[in-house]
């Protein structure tokens, strides 16, 4: 058998093949290449992939390159295309990719965890649609988009595989999943294919009941709906506001995972929300510093309008600079401690 060749396993019923969903970020493409080219991978599954890529990335080129290393039929899908066994569908930049009623669905809803396409959005739709027939795989990457989606797959009876952080070029994403979700397998990327093949019989689980909240959330993403009534049913209203649109955030708790969602569709894990708040605070401080510098220049130009308390302007400017320096240092020094 040549490298990357797969043996299609015939299952009863033409539509009864499993679905593999794969998510990754920095370093994820190399891990994906290692996974799909593994000679130990033998499956009849269809594969959907979301990788966080630069907006300038040539996704079509990546798909063509991937095709040279696997017998999966690799392509960029079109909206409404039927999901077929033995095909690998690669998400396009700038659009969420989901599955519904056996078809590929594209969505232009808001970013989820600062990304579009979002791993969470794909994984959640797959969990609701395929329940115990879905295998979610998390590869190398930064931040934590995909943690909530992996939890959704576990909740609905699917399988969770995580690339071993030691094997990952960027271990933050695998570590974030391991911190919140109990995976079925943790293994190097090159061994994931063999793990799928060797454990396929043990993984024939009973279909789990899909929670109504997950079904509602998946449908919101597919329909691109802004629904405050539906969102309020998903979690508890918090005192926090969305850093992207200013709307009320609702706190959704799933096992060890706590995340937030606004009614327009933005969603964040706690870590992601903290990072965005830090970014907004820094942006606000830079605006304040710019305004104070402009005021200083104006007062220098028109000394006749200078008031006594404006003598403190240099102190204000120095304090803002110190705050900014401290904030930037804290952001660069901060790390997520994860217990494995």
Would you kindly provide a written description of the structure presented here, covering whatever features stand out?
The chain is elongated and about 80 Å long. The protein has a seven-stranded parallel sheet, sandwiched between helices. A four-stranded antiparallel sheet has the order 10-11-12-13. The model is unreliable at 1-14 and 335-340 (pLDDT under 50). The chain is α/β, with parallel strands linked by helices and 340 residues long. It has three domains: 19-198, Methylesterase CheB, C-terminal domain (Rossmann fold); 225-271, no CATH class; 272-333. Helix 3 (119-130) packs parallel to helix 4. The chain has helices at 28-36, 59-67, 119-130, 147-155, 172-180, 189-198, 212-223, 228-234, 270-301, 313-333; strands at 19-24, 46-51, 73-75, 87-90, 96-100, 103-107, 134-138, 159-163, 185-187, 236-241, 248-254, 257-262, 267-269. The chain is built from ten helices and 13 strands.
